[in-house]
């Protein structure tokens, strides 16, 4: 198959027209898929609305308007009428102030759920201690357990009851409805049973005098609230991705106005104004250099670790770092127009547009809850008013609600995810979003970033060629002495080899940066110049044939732990070292392919995945790496927005796409992909945007994740099947349907025991997860 290579521009940004006809809302109070569906229906019913999409995880709604005159207030009122709260999302630009309020709300909700989990856990310990150790009754009455259960019921259960009440007033039901009715009914029955006002077949647990309904209510509330806390925490971490991007841009800039230089907020700066950017500062806005020369770190944009020389006329971008010299920049894009702001919007849109994948329990409960409520009501009416068997009526009502409580259904997915996460962690995989498992099971295209994913991400010293009569150690010692105070990526590679050879370095007396060229230092009484090969330098007095010809492969020193291969001269970075005017030799650097990348890519291809390589690097570099690892489909010289658009194009073709990357420039693509996997050694924003972090810098972990995703989905579906089958089998017995002929009736305590048994079976099923999934080691 011939290799497919692509280079060039790919995407266009969302038009102003499409943005003006779209309103985004923060929606508060949604807890399940039924809630999201209800909000969607309410928004679509508003006149002038063309379409509405509600994302349960991000708690946002995106509304496309057919009539631009439709006011946000009408949309908010529709959400309020549906029983929820809503606010308009402010348009994000590269400043932290615009998105503080939603983050504060998420943080407050996360803290509340954390406190509820603590209270529920303490209450559960107290209740179980009294129930499981009845001997405590000689010293302690059941009242501490009753008080603990009451605190848990009110503090944790009130929110579910309030939500169920709001839904009920508007004719809707959700999982909150069943949780509220089941736990509050169990709690009321427990109070009545413990105080002697109500009698069932079995009054108390282990002779403690305490109804086992207390443990039912407390356990259900505690574990379900724990799941809610983990979900909110995941949403909060996802929002940090936007904050990481916004942190790239400074909040103020030095603006030259007439004869003065003033600090001005970046959102007040207009096109055409001149900015002064000093060494070490971040470039505030997109623009072009008008004066000065410097090295600029564009790693957030391109993913490449090597700085780029910027001279008058060159473009610079917000969020990149000025390294070596002061430059003057003419602003060409305002704060809300910069490439950084566009990437922020892309990440937000990708997060909001993610499909709701692992919500199988909510889909079942959407129709299961109303049926259970109807069955419970019919049971009470038939046994009570119709047959005048009031004790059977009450027992049947409670038994149906308890046996049909969504404990097993609620545990089916999270227990599988918990076990899968443990299995994943043991293989160097951190899964932050449970939906990633279901998506991973359907992936057929794997997109790989080049730098830092397939390659090591840092230039390695791969070639050393000393001048005639010069020892390699002397060449390295001179280069190391000059580079020991430098933060340049090439300096790290030189110093690593110096340490390996245990060479001594002279102290540095002075350092002079040569922007775009290299550096000159005074060290040990010598003048040492380290510069890019091919750049003229008056310090060189020896013939320059060595610095201008291809490296002699026969004289290349073998590097440890590196599969050097034969590097294309066009892709190798060559540096000249000069001491007191004498040419000591040249050093060659290249970004090496990771030792495990070939193995991982071969494993992906054997499993039938289509593998694509994309990078912001030059076409020749991308082609060489692709050839080394056996990838035939390559996209090079891509900006972050172009990577994002490529993912969307692959999805539009009907593919389910996994993206593996490590840079800030990969953030939008990682968020847009069905499965985003970030290398842990990469940028924080990449790790926040991705749903999966590969802790080990090993691409084989991505293969393991895809295998584990398939296994996890199999277990989740099996768990849901048995949890649902358990309800279908036991609900008729709990109603007393066969009691007149068989005398068989499940009392509420037995119903609670069956419910617990179903939960245990789900947990045991989940514990089997991953036993048959072997790590990807060929």
Brief sketch in words of this structure:
By secondary structure, this protein is an alpha+beta fold.
What is the fold's blueprint, element by element?
Layout: E1 4-7, H1 16-20, E2 22-28, H2 33-44, E3 49-55, E4 60-65, H3 72-81, E5 85-88, H4 100-132, H5 143-169, H6 175-194, H7 213-246, E6 252-257, E7 260-265, E8 274-277, E9 287-291, E10 294-297, H8 299-302, E11 308-310, E12 315-316, E13 321-322, E14 327-331, H9 339-352, H10 360-386, H11 390-403, H12 407-426, E15 429-431, H13 435-442, E16 445-449, H14 450-454, E17 455-466, H15 472-483, H16 489-501, E18 508-514, E19 518-523, E20 526-532, H17 545-548, E21 573-579, E22 582-593, H18 597-606, E23 610-614, H19 619-629, E24 633-636, H20 640-652, E25 657-661, H21 667-672, E26 675-679, H22 684-689, E27 692-694, H23 700-735, H24 739-742, H25 748-767
Helix pairs in contact: 4-5, 4-7, 5-6, 5-7, 6-7, 7-9, 10-11, 10-23, 11-23, 11-25, 12-23, 12-25, 13-23, 15-16, 18-23, 23-25
- The 3D shape can be described as elongated
Biggest sheet: strands side by side, in what order? 1-24-23-16-25-26-27-15
Count of alpha and pi helical runs: 25
Separation of the first and last Cα atoms = 24 Å
Largest beta-sheet details: 8 strands, mixed
User: How many runs of DSSP E, i.e. beta strands?
Assistant: 27
Instruction: Report the C-alpha radius of gyration, rounded.
Output: 32 Å
Oligomeric state of this protein: single chain
Overall helicity: 40-55%
The structure class reads alpha+beta
Low-confidence stretches: 1-20, 92-101, 198-207, 353-358, 537-567
Mean pLDDT: 76
């Amino acid at each position: 198959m011939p290799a497919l290579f692509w280079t060039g521009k790919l995407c266009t940004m969302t038009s102003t027209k499409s943005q003006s006809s779209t309103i985004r809302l923060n929606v508060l109070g949604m807890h399940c898929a039924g809630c999201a569906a209800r909000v969607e229906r309410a928004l679509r019913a508003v006149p002038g609305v063309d379409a509405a999409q509600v994302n349960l995880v991000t708690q946002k709604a995106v509304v496309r308007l057919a009539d631009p005159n439709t006011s946000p207030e009408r949309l908010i009122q529709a959400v309020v009428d549906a029983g929820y709260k809503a606010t308009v999302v402010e348009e994000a630009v590269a400043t932290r102030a615009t998105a503080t309020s939603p983050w504060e709300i998420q943080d407050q909700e996360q803290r509340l759920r954390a406190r509820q989990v603590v209270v529920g856990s303490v209450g559960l310990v107290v209740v179980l201690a009294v129930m499981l150790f009845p001997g405590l009754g000689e010293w302690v009455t059941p009242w501490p357990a009753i008080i603990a259960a009451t605190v848990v019921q009110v503090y944790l259960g009130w929110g579910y009851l309030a939500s169920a009440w709001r839904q009920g007033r508007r004719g809707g039901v959700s999982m909150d409805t069943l949780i509220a009715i089941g736990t509050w009914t169990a709690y009321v029955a427990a109070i009545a049973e413990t105080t002697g006002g109500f009698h069932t077949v079995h009054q108390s647990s282990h002779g403690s005098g305490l109804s086992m309904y207390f443990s039912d209510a407390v356990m259900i509330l505690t574990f379900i609230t724990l799941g809610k806390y983990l979900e909110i925490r995941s949403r909060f971490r996802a929002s940090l991705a936007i904050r990481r991007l916004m942190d790239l841009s400074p909040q103020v800039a030095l603006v030259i106005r007439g004869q003065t230089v003033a600090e001005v907020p970046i959102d007040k700066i207009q096109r055409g104004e001149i900015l002064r950017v000093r060494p070490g500062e971040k470039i505030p806005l997109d623009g072009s250099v008008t004066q000065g020369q410097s090295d600029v770190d564009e790693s957030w944009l391109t993913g490449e670790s090597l700085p780029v020389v910027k001279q008058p006329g060159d473009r610079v971008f917000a969020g990149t770092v000025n390294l070596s010299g002061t430059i003057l920049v003419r602003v060409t894009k305002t704060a809300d127009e910069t490439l950084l702001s566009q990437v922020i919007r892309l990440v937000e849109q990708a997060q909001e547009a993610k499909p709701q994948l692992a919500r199988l329990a909510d889909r079942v409960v959407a129709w299961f809850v109303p049926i259970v409520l109807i069955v419970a009501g019919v049971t009470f009416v038939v046994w009570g008013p119709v047959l005048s068997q009031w004790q059977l009526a009450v027992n049947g009502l409670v038994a149906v609600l308890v046996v049909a409580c969504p404990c097993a259904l609620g545990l089916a997915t999270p227990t599988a995810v918990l076990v899968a996460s443990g299995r994943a962690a043991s293989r160097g995989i951190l899964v932050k979003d449970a939906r990633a498992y279901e998506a991973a099971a359907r992936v057929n295209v794997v997109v790989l970033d080049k730098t830092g994913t397939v390659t090591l991400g840092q230039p390695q010293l791969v070639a050393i060629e000393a001048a005639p009569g010069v020892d390699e150690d002397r060449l390295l010692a001179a280069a190391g002495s000059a580079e020991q105070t430098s933060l340049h990526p090439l300096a790290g590679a030189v110093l690593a080899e110096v340490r390996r050879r245990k060479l001594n370095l002279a102290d540095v007396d002075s350092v002079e940066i040569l922007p775009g060229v290299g550096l000159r230092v005074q060290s040990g009484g010598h003048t040492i110049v380290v510069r890019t090969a091919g750049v003229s330098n008056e310090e060189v007095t020896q013939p320059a044939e060595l610095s201008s010809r291809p490296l002699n492969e026969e004289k290349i020193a073998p590097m440890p732990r590196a599969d050097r291969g034969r590097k294309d001269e066009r892709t190798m970075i060559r540096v000249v070292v000069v001491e007191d005017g004498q040419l000591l030799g040249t050093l060659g650097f290249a970004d090496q392919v990771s030792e495990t990348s070939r193995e991982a890519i071969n494993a992906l291809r054997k499993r039938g995945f289509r593998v694509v390589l994309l990078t912001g690097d030059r076409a020749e570099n991308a082609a060489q790496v692709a050839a080394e690892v056996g990838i035939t489909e390559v996209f090079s010289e891509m900006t972050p927005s172009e990577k994002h658009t490529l993912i969307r194009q692959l999805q539009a073709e009907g593919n389910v796409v996994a993206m593996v990357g490590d840079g800030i420039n990969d953030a939008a693509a990682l968020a847009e992909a069905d499965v985003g996997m970030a290398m842990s050694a990469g940028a924080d924003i990449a790790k926040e945007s991705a749903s999966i972090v590969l802790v080990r810098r090993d691409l084989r972990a991505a293969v393991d994740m895809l295998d584990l995703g398939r296994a996890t989905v199999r277990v989740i579906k099996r768990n849901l099947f048995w949890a649902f089958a358990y309800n279908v089998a036991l609900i008729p017995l709990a109603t007393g349907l066969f009691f007149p002929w068989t005398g068989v009736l499940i009392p509420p305590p037995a119903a609670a025991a069956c419910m617990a048994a179903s939960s245990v079976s789900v947990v045991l099923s989940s514990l089997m997860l991953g036993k048959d999934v072997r790590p990807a080691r060929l």
